[in-house]
Amino acid sequence: MKEHKAPIAECLVKEIAKPAKDSVSEVVRSGDLVSYCAEEGVRILGEGKFLVSDSFPGNDRTKYCLTSKIPLGVVLAIPPFNYPVNLAVSKIAPALIAGNSLVLKPPTQGAVAALHMVHCFHLAGFPKGLIGCVTGKGSEIGDFLTMHPGVNCISFTGGDTGIAISRKAGMIPLQMELGGKDACIILEDADLDLAAANIIKGGFSYSGQRCTAVKVVLVMESVADTLVEKVKAKVAKLTVGSPEDNCDITPVVTESSANFIEGLVMDAKQKGATFCQEYKREGNLIWPLLLDNVRPDMRIAWEEPFGPVLPVIRISSVEEGIHHCNASNFGLQGCVFTRDINKSILVSDAMETGTVQINSAPARGPDHFPFQGLKDSGIGSQGITNSINMMTKIKSTVINLPTPSYTMG
Question: Where is the Aldehyde dehydrogenase domain (predicted)?
């Protein structure tokens, strides 16, 4: 994969308008994930358990139990458009090291990059047929794949479709990473320069088209003016244009996505949000926009834009921020900025999200960290170790010993 990073990255630039430098990083990161997964898999799968029956009350030592991990069979992997290589590899590598075969259903936009990536596995010597790749629209082939009796596990990353898949899939293990409305809570004692830098990185990287993007800023009223000015100054420096030119903000993936984002913006405008920049759109290209004084009656306070539009809600207490975060039907990630470690832990404990970042924007990696969502943000936990374990099942062999007729002594 690292040898072929240039052509794969070029596909990402052309297919999903990902900036060139980010596209190369995605491919390199995916290669690193495969290497780590291979080593970790050998360790995990080399471990078994030995149990004896007399450790449970009322039993003699007449049974020995040996447990090991065995493959599930066929894993169906469905990655999203925004990371069609990395989020495919994060499913393929654990499945293969655990001994499974795999069917990959790449996203419609991102399929060419995914096919290039699968070709790398074949070039590396994996037998043909071990990884099957089925391209096509999810609306046409999704049900056939997800309800197929030959599928033994589904790993899906994406949006609302995942909920429908989970209802139809039946009695097989599911790994689902769905949407997020990742909240960034800024306390009064926060380092506001650090917070502003992370809001820009978290809210506007890849034009906000990330599950773990900062989707709402909840800032204490006393520091809100200062924070908003710092973020506005940084937004003004973001470059807007072509992914080939490595611009910070590039076109969103489809016209329907751009229309949805615009709907959220117009709703906020109608209800009195403060526009920190002029709203500007050309086709699928939307200029970065910070919306201040957003209130809970605006759609943007709750819905996931998946674009370069970020709402700021001013709060009068930490409890108010936590309440807004927890009132969401999403619970993927969140973050809190404060210099007080005790407060940060208390806020983290109170936030109903799979991961809380302290003094940093939400992020999925490093790829061996656990990664999971609560509520409508998903089922199960990802990260290399968790994925390998999820893509195996426990097999037990019990050796029954004859009941001793005498005692040795």
Answer: 1-396
pLDDT at residue 287, rounded to an integer: 98
How many CB atoms sit inside 10 A of residue 279's CB?
Answer: 15
Which single residue is written with the structure tokens 């003004």? 236
* Whether pTM exceeds 0.70: yes
What Rg, from alpha-carbon coordinates, does the chain have? 24
Question: What are the backbone dihedrals phi and psi of residue 390, each rounded to the nearest 5 degrees, phi first?
Answer: -70, -30
Q: CB of 250 within 8 A of CB of 19?
A: yes
User: In whole angstroms, what is the distance from residue 16 CA to residue 26 CA?
Assistant: 13
DSSP 295-328: -TTSGGGTS---SSEEEEEEESSHHHHHHHHHHS
The CA distance from 213 to 231, in Å, is 15
List the beta bridge partners of residue 406.
none
pLDDT above 90 covers a percentage of the chain that reads 97
Q: Place 407 in a pLDDT band, splitting at 50, 70 and 90.
A: low
Q: What percentage of the chain exceeds 70 in pLDDT?
A: 99
CB 249 within 8 A of CB 288: yes
Q: How far is CA 52 from CA 64, 66, 192, 404, 409, in A?
A: 5, 9, 57, 15, 21
What average pLDDT does this structure show over 205-226? 98
For residue 337, give the amino acid letter.
Answer: F
Active site residues: 177
51 forms beta bridges with 65
Backbone angles phi, psi at 358, to 5 degrees: -100, 120
- Per the CB < 8 A criterion, the answer to whether 169 and 144 are in contact is no
* Amino acid identity for residue 40 in this structure: E
Tokens 């590899």 -> residue: 89
Note the pLDDT tens digit of each residue in 281-292: 999 999 999 999
Residue 367 vs residues 78, 306, 362: alpha-carbon distances, Å: 18, 22, 13
| Residue located via tokens 């009195």 | 272
215-235 residues labelled b (16+ CB within 10 A) or e (exposed): bbbbbbeebbeebbebbeebb
Which residues in 53-201 belong to E strands, given as ranges? 63-71, 74-78, 101-104, 131-133, 153-157, 174-177, 183-186
Q: Can you name the residues that pair with 68 across neighbouring β-strands?
A: 395
Domains of the chain in start order, with CATH, are 5-178+377-396 (3.40.605.10), 183-358 (3.40.309.10)
